[in-house]
Specification:
With 401 residues, the chain is mostly beta strands. It has 5 helices and 27 strands.
């Protein structure tokens, strides 16, 4: 009898430990605020379900569509995990692309990509660094004059007889002003402050969708960052232009491949915002022949078969088979909501998996747009990360008015 009791206690302890783990994982990784387009029961991984305040499962087919309601997430509909706010909205529809495009971008301000020592008659000094200017700072003004280009910064800084500059920079959304005194470099015959700056960039990506609600364009699924500072580049102005794929370098373990494209003068959209979930702008471009897909909310996404639409040759966008192997609802991982594995033999033969330039490729599952590729996993290029389509659609409507 005692042995049976001990066995029962052990089984109960294991059961309670497992339940506690599920509660802890659900509390940490499931969202506190849920936006859903689905009309039926909401569940995550078939383990966590939503209940409303009167202890019935949330089913929007049986209730009026409301803007928001207080609900709770439960394990198997029984064990409470945490309270959440659920917002029910009408499903969105967008024109889905998958075509490659070129990026031409100029920054709002001039990015400091580094500082350097200046050789003087008494040794090397670094005026900019000594004053407090750091890599990643964005120069917005010098002596009260707005800076818009690296050429302008260079001209102002070179036109000096050794007097101090008042340099205003933007750093982490805050503004700081530094006094920088240049030093004379005998080898160059002029005064120098020791700054490397950049004001523009260019690149290749994939268009995710066009949102007809506000004529917005969305692409990449991740921000454009400076190659030296890894800081998000603030857009002053920029264009998305049509491209033609001319060459492709295959990915292999430890080395990401890439698309090579020729840029055209055919403008697709004017770029307006560069955010954690991608780049956005206004389009004035014929899109009516593109396929229309309804956007899925995250609770509709399942692990399993899906498709991506991407352009890897001059034949234009094509559908390829992939598998969604992980779905993460944790806040803060905007561009890494899913892990996607390429399983299409034709695409693997051509690209080796995911290559640079495929960022933004739309992901389709069960006839809906569920996300967009964002990053290749370099050690295993058959896999990559993806962002929820809902995040990009909501962002496109928030940032482009």
């Amino acid at each position: 009898m005692k042995k049976a009791v001990r066995i029962f206690d052990s089984i109960l302890a294991v059961f309670l430990a497992v339940i506690y783990i599920f509660i802890a994982v659900g509390y940490e990784y499931l969202p506190n605020n849920i936006i859903t387009y689905s009309s039926g029961e909401i569940s995550y991984n078939r383990i966590y379900t939503l209940k409303n305040n009167d202890d019935e499962k949330v089913d929007f087919q049986k209730s009026q569509r409301v803007s928001s309601s207080e609900s709770s997430i439960n394990i198997l509909g029984v064990i409470p995990v945490k309270d959440v706010t659920v917002s029910q909205r009408e499903a969105k529809k967008v024109f889905v692309s998958g075509d490659s495009f070129g990026i031409k971008l100029y920054t709002d301000g001039v990015i400091v990509v580094g500082t350097k020592n200046v050789k003087t008659s008494s040794g090397e000094v670094n005026p900019a660094k000594d004053a407090g200017i750091e890599k990643g700072d964005i120069i917005v003004e010098i002596n009260g004059e707005k800076m818009t280009s690296a050429t302008q910064v260079e001209k102002v800084l070179n036109d000096n007889n050794g007097k101090a500059y008042r340099i205003k920079v933007k750093r982490n959304s805050n503004y700081k002003t530094f006094s920088v005194t240049p030093v004379f470099s005998p080898s160059e015959g002029c005064y120098k402050v020791g700054l490397w700056v950049r004001d523009s960039t260019a690149g290749i990506g994939t268009i995710t969708f066009f949102n007809p609600e506000n004529d917005s364009f969305a692409a990449l699924g991740h921000p454009i960052t400076d190659v030296d500072t890894n800081e998000i580049m603030p857009i002053l102005e920029g264009e998305a232009v049509k491209t033609t794929v001319t060459k492709l370098y295959k990915s292999r373990a430890g080395e990401a491949g890439s698309l090579c494209c020729d840029f055209s003068n055919d403008v697709i959209a004017e770029l307006g915002e560069n955010t954690q979930s991608g780049i956005y702008g206004k389009y004035d471009y014929p899109v009516n022949e593109l396929p229309v897909y309804e956007v899925a909310s995250p609770d509709e996404i399942e692990k399993g078969p899906a498709q991506i639409i991407c352009t890897v040759d001059d034949g234009g966008p094509k559908l390829y088979s992939v598998e969604i192997t992980r779905v993460s609802y944790r806040s803060g991982s905007v561009s890494k909501n899913m892990v996607v594995k390429v399983v299409d033999n034709a695409l693997l033969k051509k690209t080796g998996g995911i290559v640079q330039g495929m960022s933004g490729s739309p992901i389709i599952q069960n006839g809906k747009l569920v996300g967009a590729l964002t990053h290749v996993i370099v050690d295993n290029p058959e896999k990559g990360y993806a962002v929820f389509a809902q995040t990009m659609v909501e962002e496109s409507e928030n940032v482009i008015k």
